[in-house]
Design goal:
The chain contains 7 helices and 11 strands. The protein has 290 residues and is an alpha/beta fold. Strand 10 and strand 11 form a beta hairpin. The N and C termini lie far apart (73 Å).
Length: 290
C-alpha cells in the first residue's frame, strides 16, 4: 500500500504530447492533377554512356552478334522513350565497343586470348550498325545529338574506324555532331555541367580527376557540376572527389566464359542521365540488358 505510484515515463509523455499536437490537423482537400514538368525546354540534356559494349564477344550463353545488336537497339528505344524530353543528347562511346582489335583475337597489350565471333571485318561492320542505330533512336527524341568517342584496352586502334565511319555517315546532318579527337579523354560542357570521360584502364580515378582539372582548367572554372565516367571494370562504382563526382558504369555487354568462370557478376545495362543547365543531374533511367 505504501509503494509509490509509477511515474509516467518521459517517452510516454512525449508520445502524448505528439498526439495532442497532431490530432486536430485538418485533412487536405482533393489535389487536382497538374501538368507534367516540361523537359522539352533547351535547359535539359540527356547523357547516355555506352561503355564496354564488346561487339563480337562470344557470351557465356551463346548468342549471335546480330541478335545482340537487335537487343541493344530495342533497349535503346525503351531507354530514350523513358527519359525526359530534352533538347540535346550526348552519347558516349566509352571504349571497348569492339571486343577485339584485329584478326589475332588477342588483347593488344597483354596478348590474352579472346573468345570472339566472326572475322574482324564483320565485327567492325556490326559495330558501326549498332552505334548508328543508337544515334538514330536518340535523334528520334532530341533536337541534336553529340557523340564523344574514346578508345578502350580492347580496341585501341579499331575505335578509329568506328569513329570516322560514323562521322562520314552524318557529315551532312546538322543535328549530329561527331567529336573527332585523338585523345583518350573527352570533356564537354552543358551549361554549368562538365561531362568528362576515360575508359578507366590506365589511371586511378583520383589521378584522372586531377588530370581533368589541369588539362581542361578553363571548362573546370566555368562549371559547377562535374561528372566523370569510366568503365573497364564491368561493375558499378562511384565516389565523390573534391570538385568532381566519378562513376564507373556497368557494362552494356553480358559476361563471357572467362567472366563466368571468374565468378564475376552478370548485371549489364543501358543508362541515361538528365542534366539541367544550372541544377546539374535531375533524373536517371536504367534499362537492364541481361
Amino acid at each position: 500500500l505504501l509503494k509509490p505510484e509509477k511515474e509516467e515515463s518521459e517517452e510516454e509523455s512525449r508520445i502524448e504530447e505528439i498526439i495532442d499536437r497532431v490530432k486536430d490537423i485538418p485533412a487536405v482537400s482533393e489535389i487536382e492533377e497538374k501538368e507534367a514538368t516540361d523537359y522539352s525546354s533547351k535547359n535539359y540534356c540527356n547523357v547516355i554512356p555506352l561503355f564496354d559494349v564488346h561487339i563480337g564477344q562470344l557470351p557465356e550463353e551463346k548468342e549471335s552478334t546480330e541478335n545482340y545488336i537487335n537487343r541493344i537497339l530495342v533497349k535503346m528505344r525503351r531507354l530514350v522513350e523513358s527519359m525526359p524530353r530534352a533538347s540535346k543528347c550526348i552519347i558516349i562511346n566509352g571504349g571497348d565497343f569492339l571486343h577485339a582489335d584485329d584478326n589475332t583475337n588477342l588483347t593488344p597489350s597483354n596478348k590474352n586470348p579472346l573468345d570472339v565471333q566472326g572475322r574482324h571485318y564483320e565485327r567492325v561492320d556490326a559495330s558501326i550498325e549498332a552505334l548508328c542505330g543508337c544515334i538514330e533512336w536518340a535523334l528520334y527524341r532530341h533536337e541534336s545529338v553529340e557523340v564523344e568517342s574514346i578508345p578502350g584496352n580492347h580496341d585501341p586502334n579499331a575505335w578509329i574506324a568506328l569513329l570516322f565511319a560514323v562521322a562520314e555517315r552524318y557529315r551532312e546532318n546538322p543535328r549530329v555532331t561527331i567529336t573527332r579527337s585523338p585523345l583518350e579523354f573527352f570533356a564537354t560542357k552543358w551549361g554549368s555541367n562538365l561531362i568528362c570521360g576515360h575508359h578507366g584502364h590506365k589511371r586511378q580515378p583520383k589521378d584522372l580527376v586531377m588530370h581533368f582539372a589541369s588539362e581542361f582548367h578553363q571548362l573546370w572554372g566555368e562549371t559547377e557540376h562535374r561528372h566523370m565516367f569510366t568503365g573497364h571494370w564491368h561493375h558499378l562504382k562511384a565516389q565523390d572527389f573534391p570538385g568532381m563526382t566519378w562513376e564507373a558504369v556497368r557494362p552494356v555487354t553480358v559476361r563471357d566464359h572467362y567472366a563466368a568462370s571468374s565468378a564475376y557478376g552478370e548485371y549489364s545495362e543501358l543508362m541515361g542521365i538528365t542534366y539541367h543547365k544550372e541544377l546539374g543531374e535531375v533524373n536517371r533511367v536504367r534499362c537492364r540488358l541481361g
